[in-house]
What we know:
- The model is unreliable at 1-22 (pLDDT under 50).
- By secondary structure, this protein is mainly β.
- It starts with a helix and ends with a strand.
- The strands form 28 sheets. An 11-stranded parallel β-sheet has the order 85-86-89-95-99-102-105-108-111-113-115. A 9-stranded parallel β-sheet has the order 87-92-96-100-103-106-109-112-114. Strands 1, 2, 5, 6, 8, 11 and 13 form a 7-stranded mixed β-sheet that branches.
- InterPro entries: Pectin_lyas_fold, Pectin_lyase_fold/virulence, Pectinesterase_cat, Secre_tail, Thrombospondin_3-like_rpt, TSP_type-3_rpt.
- It holds the Pfam family Por_Secre_tail.
- Residues 1637-1709 form the Secretion system C-terminal sorting domain.
- Belongs to the pectinesterase family.
- This is Pectinesterase catalytic domain-containing protein.
Amino acid sequence: MKKQLQLLALFLLLGLFKGYSQNLPDVWDFGATQLDASQYNNMLTVDVINSWYDASITPGSSGNVLPDFTTGILSWTGGGNDRLRTTNTDLTRYDENINDYPDFKGRIYVNSSGATGRYLNLDLNEDDVVTVVARSQNGNGNIHFDYVADSNLQNDAFAVGTEPTELTFVAKEAGNYHIYDDTDKPSYFRVVRKSATYASITGNLDVTAAPGIPDGYSIIFTNAAGKTWSSTVAGGTYNVDLPVGYQYDLSLEGADGYSISSATTLEVTESTSSFDVSIKDNNTSAAAEAGKTYTYSFADGSEIPQTSYTSLRYDTFQTNDGIFTINSNTNDESLKFGYHDSTHGLVMFPGNSVDMMVAGNATISFIVCTYGSATDAVFEFTDKDGNVLGSIPGQNIGGADAYASSFTYSGPAGKITATLKSDNFPTAEVYIHGLVIENAAAIEPSNGLADVWDFGAEQLDESQYNNRLTVDIINSWYDESITPGSSGNVLPDFTAGVLSWIGGGNDRLRTTNTNLTRYDENVSSDVFTGRVYVNSRGATGRYMSITLSEDDEVSLWVLGQDGVGKLHFEYVADPSIQNDVADVGGEVTQVNFVAKEGGTYHIYDAADKPSYFRIIRKSATYVDLSGNVDLTEAAGIPDNYSINFTNEAGKTWNVTPSGGTYQVSLPVGYQYSLSLEDANGYIISNGTTLEVTEATTSYDINIQKVEIYTVSGSIIGLGDHIQDLSLSFIPDPDANSIYVPQPVLDKDASTYTVQLEPGIDYTIQAEGVNDYYIPDNILQISGDTNHNITFDPKPLQEVTIVANGLTDAQKADLVLTFTNLNESGYSYTFSDISAVALRDGVYKVSASGLDKYPLQLAPTSNLTIQGEAVTKTLDFENVTNWTFDDVVITNDTEFYKGLTFTGSIKNEKAKGHLVGGSGGTIEVPLQPGQKMIVTYYYAADFNIDGGDAITTNSGSTSQLEHVTYVYPGTEAGSAVISINATTYITNIEVIDVVPFSAIITVGVDKDYQTINGALDAISRMDRPNDERVTVLIDPGNYEEMLVINENNITLKNAASIPSIELTNQGVDIADNAVRITSYYGYGYNYYSQGTDNKWNAEALAVNKANGSQPYDNVSGTTNGSYWDATLVVSADGFIAEDLIIENSFNQYISKKESEDIVVMVSGNRGERPTGYGNTSVQNRSFVERAAAIGIAGGSDKVILYKCRIVGRQDSFYGGSDARVVIYKGAMMGAVDYIFGGMTAVFYKSDLVLNTSDVSSDAAYITAAQQDGGRGFLMYETNIISTVPGVNTASSQGAKPGYFGRPWQANTSEVVFFKTYIDTSSYPGYEGESLINPEGWKSSLGGESEKMYEYGTIEASGVDHSADRVSWSTVLDSPVLKDGTDITTFNFTKGNDGWDPLPALVANDDTDNDGILDIDDNCVSTPNSDQADMDGDGIGDVCDDSDGDGLVDSEDHCPNSPEGAVVDVFGCEVFNLAADNYNITVHDVRCNGNNDGYISISAEDTSYTYNVSVTGADTGSASLSSSNGFSANIENLKAGTYAICITIDSRDNYEQCFSVTIEGPAPLAAYSSVNYSNNTVTFSLSGSKAYSIDHNGETISTTQSSIVLDLKPGKNKFAIYTNSDCQGKVFKEVLMSDDVVLFPNPTMGELKVYINGDDTNIDVSLIDLSGREYYSGNMDIPSDRVLNLDLTNYSNGVYFLLLKSEKVSKSLKVIKL
């Protein structure tokens, strides 16, 4: 009975009964914090938590993993290695690590990323509210609240960062819910469950502003969880019961065209009982504001709640500002719009519409998607009356993602509507990322100054510019919660006058002006202080928008990150009128544009990541140009002729002369081309170009008639092709004719007419009909003539096709297309390959018609026809690898290169993936002994031949997954991939299976001759459990680019004593070395480069034959390039042993590069040498991005064992979530050469600074990019230089460099632990540390306090830890800021405890003598016999009897005293303690005096010291017992002195020091006058106290900066100190009295009022060029008004200069 009572008590304690809440919220706090019992049911206590653990575990002990548990309605299902981490030491736990969050004492830490099988389970009632406090380890958490019975009904997800975040969920149904993180390692601090309390709410409906609203409409209440309640309106009222404690969004259902005009949100509390609603007709929506840009994102939840459209669709949705409303316009639930996901944004369907309010003229941009199938989708715009205004594309399928599709509206303010339409895809999903409505700004009338927007808030000369940006204006762009002037902030959209920025949410303001709110200080310019950095390449949807007047000039200072920028200046209303494009390189460039029309322009980069430093808008200055038109020689000219003036921007001004004169207003500053219009047969004879300046006011034009006659005739031989014809008549150049004939064609009648000059040979040229030619194409006339133009077809040459690899049936299906490469638009298709005939030309050959066979045309050279028949051999190859990126596949495609499709199967070509819909199938042909590898990502649910479902919900396009299927058939057949739900497949590959072999060899006479051959064999092996394969590679040079995409591969040097040494300036290698090398680098294209960005022999042959390279080399991670890496690792368990992995791009010209054709492209470093072995590419001028190794993100457990990595810039890349261990070896590089987001341990490796002899070429070892988790651990590494002449062509060793610079601010991590830093031998830096005292730079991505250093060993003997930059962290104990001990295991362990280093150390044999280091009595010198004659445990070859570092066999003095300092021969050298001498310098009192002196003393009193001082003066002294070993050397002037000390009886000893005796610093005073508030600021230096005389008054100050008020007139200042020898500084400031001009502008009379009491004044008048019109002294009358007469002066701008004792003014005068 007692046990039963105890069990019942336990049940009550654990709260196992669901009704326990008693209306109080239940709380589970994982630190056992007891919340207020009057407000909560505390479900967890110390005893409850301790009861979860096995009885054998001591309660309150640490080091215990968390078991599964159940407490009331909450249970935990874990993975066996999860942890309770709590500072409550009464609790059984793992440790006390809760990351110092004072609000909480404990957390459940889930020790696996994305572990959906580890979850909290809650049994809930409908509308229960659950609050979870959680964080994620890496900051990319995604916490789910998943209804177990039906995830489609509810599976809410919220992003969670590294800080504890309160997440609130509401149960839509009763039942069990799972809480888990599908991407990161979450921690749960507290869970609270609260039962819903309901309020009954009623309200009245005001429909005064909603005439005609339908009967039976409903009010919809939607809470934050996406659950809706509906109340049908009856009798003008409604009633609904709602859970309290929520804010509800109100909307209408069944009332299209109407919306709620009163508040659309309602906070429901227990006291809420009524809420009235007003409704309006949407035609009276909110008013838009002129000049304001409205930006809406549909991807981030800021507008459309992030509830999937699979569970929440909308009839209508209106933004809170009322500016736009989306309408479904349908009762079909499947065609209603909703939120898709954060990648696609809003999903709409044809028939859906968007109502928008505009303030008048406006530009509407839909940010459309590259994904989808509705290739004809458009938005059709209508006004409020339904009139069609125009349309724009509603998608950009296959093009750039996030493309801004823009429509320009011109009209009154009000509502316009955009309706989505698609004729061919009426039910297709169309994805919209966002919407931007730019209401045209009112252009301010020009004040004659240029507007400038400087993104560092630099204030330009106010006499020339209107500064549109200040510190306050820029800081106002940011949310008010952000501290002004802080860093780490992304740039929001902004508007500053007529300029607006529309960005992507992750763009950056980068500025050295630390008063500005910014991202970081990385400006990339020595001239500018700030830039807007666009953090997306080719993002046309991120742009500067500027409203301009016609002819406004816009200047931009801009650069492109990759140097390949294409900067567009696009007239939004009609890009066909103006869409100028300027090339932008990697250096700051000034780009100029001129607006051809008034309106809105978008400025964006379609190819690169641009940075905008400054933008200047200048209104055009016009000049009225007039002149006479001389028609003396132009008899009969038509009355309606006109003159065209065309400037360099391509804009034309047309003027019709009248009465023999013309007048036109033209912008100044351009050269214009002059021509006639409607005056055929007449020319301008006195010059057709004119430079227009402000002084250009007249220009006479002479027109001359040209003798011409009419030629007419028929056009024969073209047939229907005449519709494509255009004709031109080109005069013989020797005739010097400037008359341009203008032929007129009547294509329907096949006739032409043209007027020509007589006696001139004209060549008749035809365009548009290139298949024809004119045999008789020379024409000369003497009068009116009839001349027929006859065309003949160009002769065709027979082409014999040899189709290798095809059967006769396949040849019958083959269709060949020949595209003329030199004549756009001319291609010829033949379905009968025996009947191919082509005219002369160069043709690209393509094949089709074979898609039902697994065949494709091999890379093929172009076909050249040159006047004779040819034979073309085409090779067809079997397709075993399908990439889906070469053609468009639609749901109607039946076959693709041998694959057979049924149902919903299509591709997204630009993304290179196949999209399968439910019910779709893919049939793949297979042969016996083959296996199929299917690669997929993002989302997948499919099976192969009816097997188990293969699924993923990773949501990531960078995380590739694959499944292997071995074909079981004994004869040819196929496998069917059946799609169960939406599936993204990136690749299908079929390969022949070969037997597994644990070891294979590579070499001249080995299993395989190339490493790629061996890797291909491994990919074909049957390795069901990824059994490891070791590739033994014979020593030698292997020019190959490798991709490791199979798990558990080892590449190993097969030499018995392997080497990784370079020789001959880095060109050659040691005899026992294996070098894997390639030569691609940024800024160049290569004929040898295939479409996979790798070296390809077929591509080289074809491209050489064609004389061109169609593929563009890419850098970064694009297309698997990894910065053109020689070795790419995209697999787990890769090991490299004793290899040299090199990119020779910045080392030497390799043999293959010397045989390649290298093409310079944007970003190149100049023409590269071509001779094999040329090392000039090591020069700093050639250095660019070129990786030796690239380890893809997610590649796990990679080991580089005693390898050498060779490169210069970006040598060694490792992506996020990759774990890498580098054991010993050498890492060579210069610029950011170890980079990326990997977790890596460099264990006792050499970090080799591989720089050139250029003095500015300093190394940056690391560029870390982690956004969480662990980073780089440089564990007991050695920072050394290359060896000149051996592994580098440099003649000098490296100069001091840097530990690195963070690539990502704040979160990137690098730890230098017990680093040995060698000294530099570079001239000027001899003996200094190879690491600059600063240690780190922030010039790449910003600052991170996680740049650590501990226990550094400086060979220079100088401790620079105090000199490191302030934002880095120098540790005084081996513990990181987050409490992590610096151990290799803490970096490698991950989630599975990976710890390879102990085994690597235990199995190391450094000297390769067959004895492991742990057993070897001489580790570094081979001694397989282990001889030890003296039995001291040290091998004889390593014995060092006196311990001086020289082995006995090389020591001239093997018995030197212990601790003695020895020379290179091992013999003792006399030395004294480093601190033996105390030297104090006493400065002179004034410069020029000789009252300085030096005090010197010695600590060791065993010797007599002789001191000599030389320099500006000389002196000497002796230190002995007679003077207490202390003396002064006196009477010394200021200067530098050498102090040298010798010792009696120690002839070889001398120690010298250099000291400086200084005088007082010179007095310096700098002034800055603020005329707006009549003050002057003095900045003072040189003393601690200063005296300032101001017009006879004396002021004393100890401040280094002082502000003084200025008095009218002259202000005389004298500044001095209490030291006469510092002298005085004098300054005079004139505070000018006020001067007023009126009227200004003036027609002539100008009055000048001069304030003050001066009696006369100097007056000058000059123009803009500085020309002086008047200069003299004038008396100032009693009324203080000077009268000036400018009547006879020319109209224009002048400057009036006034100068007197109290006046100094320069005033602008405008004469009309």
